[in-house]
Structure formats: structure tokens, C-alpha cells
Amino acid sequence: MNEKHLGKGSTNPPLSKGKLRLYSMRFCPYAQRAHLVLDAKKIPHDVVNIKLSDKPDWYFERNPLGKVPAIEMESGDCIYESLIIADYLDEKYPQRLLHPKDPIQKAKDRILVEHFSKIPTNVYKLFHGSDIDPLDDILTDLDLFEKELTLRATRFFGGDVPGMLDYVIWPWFERIDAFKIVAPEKFVIPSERYKKLKEWKETMKEDDAVKVTYIKPEIHVQFFNSYKSGNANYDILVK
Amino acid sequence: MNEKHLGKGSTNPPLSKGKLRLYSMRFCPYAQRAHLVLDAKKIPHDVVNIKLSDKPDWYFERNPLGKVPAIEMESGDCIYESLIIADYLDEKYPQRLLHPKDPIQKAKDRILVEHFSKIPTNVYKLFHGSDIDPLDDILTDLDLFEKELTLRATRFFGGDVPGMLDYVIWPWFERIDAFKIVAPEKFVIPSERYKKLKEWKETMKEDDAVKVTYIKPEIHVQFFNSYKSGNANYDILVK
């Protein structure tokens, strides 16, 4: 998982028997969604990290868009798009079902993910300047999650243990403290407004699947800064 | 289905026993996706049309975003977002499964829908002016579908009968001839480049579910023009 990111001129390591291959980038929140699902369901897999600034030619045969995450099966089939991968894995591997069993609840959770999908776009706008201040939109979307968690009155959105909704939104919560460090004047989250989410965030940090890929805020900041300088250091965690 | 569109000050008719309620707008391609799935699976439902330019207050209690489509169950539960509705209906009502049974094929079809989702945005740009000419992007995306249909060598993407992929992309193909009438100089589709898709489009028009909501190009044009003039005539088909 913390292997060197492969760029142009590299060779894709052969697939391992009985394992899925996840193509990832160690700091990509979308790729982290796939990691979390694979780890939560304990699906045997290996990881190949892709240097997104200098993508290997062979990667476009796996994902024509060149984005991460993608997963490759032993059959050679490849699929991409983080939510499609997450749904595929939950459908194909019945152990520890992450989606709610009730189709209405499953649909409602997917609607919440759809609402959530505006947050990354607005966070991006916040950092890269925009005519309209997107912070209000971010806070309004977070209100929805605070309210939902209060209504559900459970530790996680998924109940006693994290479910699909918890995992697919987690990567952005993991980065909140890093956002605060990078842009303290722009990224102002009134903590008393999100009491439940704050508790949830602390509890999520203790989850076994979350622990596998968890990166400390300072390291996220280091990556952000390298990325902003135009020379993204993907290999910060390589030993 | 061709009832008057309800606006502010209207009353929402009571739900009917044993039926789902679909909130729609007669010319909305996203709402048409929900119609197609309901009709293909023969799920009992009624339709309430929403005047999108003057939404009734009660509609925001069904969908806080105020968009169509949304479906309401007898339980009072509501869900929205066309693809989430489509997946929900296919999961909840087992008759005539529209998604492929094989999870990999299902994921691959969903990836194609994801690729397709850029087309409506680019069509919008084409009509509303944009710095870059979006036609090339539209044609490149259509190439993908032409190639896929050639590879599958079946009448429909779903095989001998239309499946989910066929239905969720159909509404934009139904409107292609109208786009050509509205903007003949901009919307230029080289027909020899899309032979398979052209055949597919003609065959789709004969499908029973497609026939239920099918609107002729001239009527679509009438709606477009009223919409562009700032006074959308939702009720063209009301008798």
C-alpha cells in the first residue's frame, strides 16, 4: 500500500493468484473509498500505486480515463469509478454487507452520498478561489449529515458498525484537520454546530478498516503543499 | 401522465392504494428514465406532473431539491435522483430484471452510464454557447457506444430486449432529431459513423415501454422553443 508510485516506463507487476488488484494513489480520497471497502470486507487484494502526474501507458489499458481507483480481476476485467467499485465489491462479496439490506434505506443512503458529492467540489473551490464563497454550501451540506446522525441515534450511519455511507464519506473527514491547517482563515467549521459528526469522526478513527489507510493531518498537509507547488510528492510514505 | 403540471397553490392528490407515485415533468429526460423503468417492469404507479418554473411548496417535502423525478411509496417514503430510483425499482421489484445479473457486467454498464452523463452537459453547452465547441466531445462519447454495441453484437445493450443501460440513455436519443431541428448548424451527427446506434434507435422506438412516453421530435421542438423563450409550456400534451 505504501509502495512507490509507478510512472511512465514502469512495468505493471503480474497479478497475484486469488487476489484482486487495486490501482490507487496513496493520497487520493476516491481511491481510499475502494481501500476501505476492501479492508472492511477483508477481500484479498494487492495494491499498485499510480504516479498520476506521469501515468504509465499500460495504465490506460486498465482505465481509459487514467484515473484511480480501478480494480482488476484475475480474469483481466477492470472496473473504475469509486462508487461503482464499492457497489460491485459489496454485491460480489457477501461477507459483512455494507449497504443496508432494505432497498429504501439503501436508496436513501445513496441520496446522501449524492448530496455529499458537492462537498469535495466546494472544498476545491475554497482552496483555488472562486467568485462565490463556497463555505456556506459546505456547512449546509454538513448540517444534513449532522441532522441525519442525530435522527438515526446510532454510533455510525450504518448502525453499530460503519456501513457503506460511513466509509464513502470518510476520506474527506480524515482530511478536515489538514484543510484547517492549510487554510485556517478559509476553512472555518463551527465545532458546536457539528457535535454528532465530531463524535462520529473520533469513533471512525478507531475502526479497523479506517486504521489501515489512515494518514495523519500533518502528512496530508505535506502532500497538499507538494501538490500545490506543482511537484506532488506521492511517495512521502514510502519507506 | 399527460395531466396538467401542478404549481404553487395546488393540492397534491392523495396517493392511490397499491400504487407508487411518480413526480415527473412531461419533457424531462431524467424523469423519463423513471417512467421507462416503471413501464418496462409494469410496476403499478400514478403520475403527478410538477410545474418546475413554479414549484408547489408541498413538493419540497417530497424532494428538498425540488427536482424531478421523485417517487413516493405508500409508506410516505420518498426517493429521488433518476439513477437511484432506477436501481431501487430494479432491486425491489424482481420482475424482468433490467440490470445484468453478473455483477461485473452490471458494473461495466454503470461505467458506460457514467461516461454517458457527460453528453447532456455537452448538449446543453452546444445550445447555450461555450468557449470550446463541445460537439467533438459528444461524438467521441457516442463512438464509445457505437463500438460497444458492435462488440456486443446484440440488438440492444441488454441483449435481445432492452436492459437498464438501454433505458437510461434512451431519453437523449429520443431528443436527437429535435436537437437537429433546433440547431441544424451546430448539431451535426455524421450518420455513417453511427450505423449501429441508428439501427438501435429505430428498434428502441418499437419497444412497448418506450412507446408509453415517446414524444415526436416536433413536439419536443415546441417545448424547447417555449423553454428558450422563458415561458416553458409544460402542458403541450394536456388534452
UniProtKB/TrEMBL annotation, chains A, B:
Read off the Pfam families from this record: GST_C_2, GST_N_3
Tell me where on the tree of life, at the top rank, the source sits: Eukaryota
- A GO molecular function held by the record: glutathione dehydrogenase (ascorbate) activity
Give the matching Gene3D superfamilies: 1.20.1050.10, Glutaredoxin
* Residue span, GST N-terminal domain: 18-97
An individual GO BP term: glutathione metabolic process
Q: What are the alphabetically sorted keywords of the record?
A: Oxidoreductase, Transferase
Question: GO CC: one term?
Answer: cytoplasm
The record's PROSITE patterns line, in alphabetical order, gives:
GST_CTER (PS50405), GST_NTER (PS50404)
Q: Which family does it belong to?
A: Belongs to the GST superfamily. Omega family.
| Name of the protein this chain belongs to | Glutathione S-transferase omega-2
| Species this protein is from | Zootermopsis nevadensis
From the broadest rank down, the organism's phylogenetic lineage runs: Eukaryota, Metazoa, Ecdysozoa, Arthropoda, Hexapoda
